[in-house]
């Protein structure tokens, strides 16, 4: 069945679309060079047990989420100068990871 087009169709635009918030590409696509891969950190069985016990409380689903939350709590408690040093170190380590796995 073929599509038919009406040649004498009078179309009116009643409402124009107004852009209220323009999204910048940087808001969507990160310029950061980051790569994610699994790693192992060594902890004692006691530390592991405490992390597991925290996850059993049900606030987080995985041990990874528990550790991420604990790190974020610690970072939030840092002084501004320590936080700046921390972020600089993280950025350096992230760049190193990116370059090593590139």
TrEMBL record:
A Pfam family that the UniProt record links to this protein: DUF5388
Top-level taxon of origin: Bacteria
Keywords: Plasmid
Name of the featured protein: Uncharacterized protein
Protein source organism: Limosilactobacillus reuteri
